[in-house]
């Protein structure tokens, strides 16, 4: 008895035993016609393998194509691209509730090598000085490809993407590429013709706002990094010329040395040009404060001018950021050991400072000093007469020296003490207890303390 007949007999017998007639459920076994009868096939890496299995007969048939045991398709038409050489197995399976059929193919995949570069057939490629070269080796077909890029005979990269060389000189560079795998190789040599970059100027001061003091020498330099041939400079104060809205030329050297005679806010403009007529320029806002009475001889006057209230407190150290507003070799450091809450306070002995610096503090109603906070989120205040005064402008912070200025309602008096509390929070309270962090380093730097005349 065939399997189909057996199923019909069992269903009929069940229907009779239940006392009623039930029609049997019969599924026709799948029958398939294959496009390839041979079981051994060949292919190459990157080549499409196409097989088909046409369902000739069968009900509710499920189809599956498996590559090395992994289901890849459930359609009659099977297309697949092998990217790894070697022997692979393709298995076809069709099944329903009645029967199951299968067929295996063994595909021997050999490697191939075909590739090109992103520059195509070009033998001369133009580029601009100081910009990273970027070229790509594209493998069209093949696996296990090794890459080698040389610049003027020196190996610079072994990756398909060449993007780690910056031509700093304006000249011709020879680029040689070699790629290979076990079955082939590819070589190409071409020239990269690098032209000079447009005029590019680097400035010694990059901050958009510059703070300085009237009567003090101010210096800034403009350097042509690229396009320096015939480079010329001009420095101007916008709107400060003799005619209304005209500009005042204050320098034509690459380095500006200037002394702002009066306090105020000014726009400093730079204009540069080279032999090609390429231009570069930039504006800065310069805030010039009134000159005060400077007391900066900290190394000699330290013991008499300052009274520590914390440990280690005030010490003389090397300048942590010798640039911009402060190029002094030595500055004051105020540091507090431990992790407790603190304001990092210390006292200024006004009479001692006044006598040593020759300052008549009774004519002064303010103080100003340079401070370096780094990333510290501190709001230094000056306490005088029992009141903690905030600076006229909030600290800028960052990798720079800046001025903090404080004014009092009355002139200072000899014999009194002024207290600096540099480690306060914005609301005027002490910093919280805690471990040392970048924003709470428990240390700041101070330099160039000035007494400000009440008439200025």
Strand content: over 45%
Largest sheet: 6 strands, antiparallel
The fold-level CATH name of the largest domain is: Jelly Rolls
| Structural domains: how many | 4
Instruction: Please state the CA-atom Rg, rounded to the nearest Å.
Output: 42 Å
Global morphology: elongated
Q: Which CATH class of the largest domain is shown?
A: Mainly Beta
Gross CATH architecture of the largest domain: Sandwich
Low-confidence stretches: 1-18
The whole-number mean of residue pLDDT values reads: 87
Q: What's the N-to-C terminus distance?
A: 120 Å
Residue share in helix = under 10%
| Estimated structural class | mainly beta
Instruction: Provide the CATH superfamily of the largest domain.
Output: Galactose-binding domain-like
Number of alpha- plus pi-helical segments: 3
Number of strands: 35
């Amino acid at each position: 008895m065939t399997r189909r007949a057996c199923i019909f007999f069992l269903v009929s017998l069940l229907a009779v035993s239940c006392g009623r007639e039930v029609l049997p459920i019969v599924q026709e076994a799948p029958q398939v016609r294959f496009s390839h009868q041979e079981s051994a096939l060949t292919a190459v890496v990157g080549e499409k393998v196409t097989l088909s299995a046409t369902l000739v007969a069968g009900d509710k048939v499920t189809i599956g194509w498996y590559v090395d045991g992994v289901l890849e398709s459930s359609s009659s038409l099977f297309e697949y691209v092998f990217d790894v050489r070697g022997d692979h197995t393709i298995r076809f399976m069709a099944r329903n509730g009645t029967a199951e059929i299968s067929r295996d193919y063994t595909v021997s995949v050999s490697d191939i090598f075909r590739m090109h570069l992103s520059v195509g057939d070009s033998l001369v490629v133009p580029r601009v000085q100081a910009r990273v070269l970027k070229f790509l080796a594209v493998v069209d077909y093949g696996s296990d490809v090794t890459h080698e890029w040389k610049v003027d005979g020196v190996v610079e990269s072994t990756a398909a993407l060449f993007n780690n060389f910056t031509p700093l000189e304006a000249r011709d560079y020879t680029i040689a590429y070699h790629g290979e795998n076990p079955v082939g190789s590819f070589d190409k040599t071409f020239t990269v013709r690098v032209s000079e970059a447009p005029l590019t100027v680097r400035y010694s001061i990059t901050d958009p706002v510059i703070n300085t003091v009237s009567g003090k020498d101010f210096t800034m330099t403009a350097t042509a990094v690229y396009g320096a041939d015939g480079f010329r400079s001009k420095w101007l104060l916008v709107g400060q010329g003799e005619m209304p809205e005209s500009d005042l030329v204050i320098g034509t050297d690459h380095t500006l040395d200037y002394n702002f005679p009066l306090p105020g806010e000014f726009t400093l403009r730079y204009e540069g040009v080279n032999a090609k007529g390429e231009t570069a320029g930039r504006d800065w806002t310069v805030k010039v404060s009134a000159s005060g009475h400077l007391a900066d001889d900290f190394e000699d006057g330290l013991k008499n001018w300052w009274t520590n209230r914390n440990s280690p407190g005030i010490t003389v150290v090397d300048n942590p950021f010798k640039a911009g507003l402060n190029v002094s070799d030595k500055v004051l450091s105020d540091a507090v050991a431990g992790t407790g809450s603190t304001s990092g306070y210390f006292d200024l002995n006004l009479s001692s400072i006044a006598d040593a610096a020759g300052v008549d503090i009774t004519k002064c109603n303010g103080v100003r000093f340079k401070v370096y906070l780094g990333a510290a989120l501190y709001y230094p205040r000056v306490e005088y007469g029992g009141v903690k005064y905030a600076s006229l402008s909030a600290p800028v912070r960052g990798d720079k020296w800046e001025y903090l200025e404080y004014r009092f309602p009355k002139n200072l008096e000899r014999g009194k003490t002024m207290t600096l509390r540099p480690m306060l929070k914005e609301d005027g309270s002490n910093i919280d207890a805690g471990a040392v962090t970048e924003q709470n380093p428990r240390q700041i730097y101070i330099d160039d303390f000035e007494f400000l005349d009440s008439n200025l």
